[in-house]
Specification:
alpha+beta; Umud Fragment, subunit A; seven-stranded antiparallel β-sheet; two-stranded antiparallel ribbon; 5 helices; DNA-binding
DNA sequence: CGCATTCTATGCTACCGGCC
DNA sequence: GGCCGGTAGCATAGAATGCG
């Protein structure tokens, strides 16, 4: 048996991986844009509210998703979240001052701040390994690019785009207009390009890079 | 910066199906 | 047939975001 949270979580995930907001997916499916609002997932008395099979059927149809895949999305929602994690962080200006490194040059981590990593979980993020020199000088062969799948990609972001023709690319978003992206190539040997939303299978913001 | 668009939240009504 | 419990839809407002 699936729980209320798993069902709604699967709807959220389906919207994300399809490139829609939850309200956008509802509109696309011909439903009211508020149908999947969080405020409509519980009744005023606090009791859980469930989506109808008809609504689910419509969003599956509009996203060309099989029921078995929707069930898989419910399963992924049940995964235990990764343990919270963080790493020490220090500003460049502070790094030049005394007190943040010991006599042996090793960092005194208890004086450093922390940057949380617990927002990076396996459900929404995945890593791609760079192959070849096509993304030099920014990304080198062997670097890992962590992609925030479903995050809104905005002007100035570096993002991964997978096109309907199967091509996968990492670009910097120069401009985003309705229905189209203007992308700058990281490697100057490659020209900037324009791509239309309809040509994009999915895209995700580059959240982290291991170098 | 101002305007337009999109998204989200809230409260209400309409409609449907089950039960008595 | 009337009541009750449930989801969907409508109207409205505010926040967030994009664009010229």
């Amino acid at each position: 048996m699936y729980t209320h949270d798993e069902i709604w979580g699967a709807i959220d995930r389906l919207a994300k991986i399809s490139g829609y907001s939850t309200s956008g997916l509802a509109i696309k499916a011909g439903l009211d844009p508020t149908s999947f609002n969080k405020s409509k997932r519980v009744q005023p008395n606090g009791k859980a509210r469930w989506p109808s099979m008809e609504s689910i059927s419509k969003i599956l149809a509009v996203t060309n998703t099989a029921m078995v895949d929707f069930v898989a999305l419910m399963d992924s929602a049940t995964d235990a979240p990764n343990a919270a994690a963080s790493i020490p962080v220090l500003g460049f200006a502070q790094a030049g001052r005394e007190g943040y490194f010991g006599e042996d040059g090793a960092p005194i981590l208890e004086k450093w701040g922390e940057v949380p990593l617990d927002h990076i979980n396996g459900d929404d993020y995945f890593a791609l390994e760079v192959n070849g020199e096509s993304m030099m000088p920014l990304y080198r062969d062997g670097d890992l690019i962590i992609v925030a799948q479903g995050d809104s990609v905005r002007k100035g972001d570096r993002a991964v785009f997978k096109l309907n023709n199967g091509e996968v690319m990492v670009k910097e978003v120069l401009k985003k207009t309705k229905g189209q992206y203007v992308l700058r190539s990281i490697n100057s040997d490659f020209a900037d390009i324009d791509i239309k939303d309809e040509d994009i299978q999915w895209c995700g913001r580059v959240a982290w890079v291991s170098q």
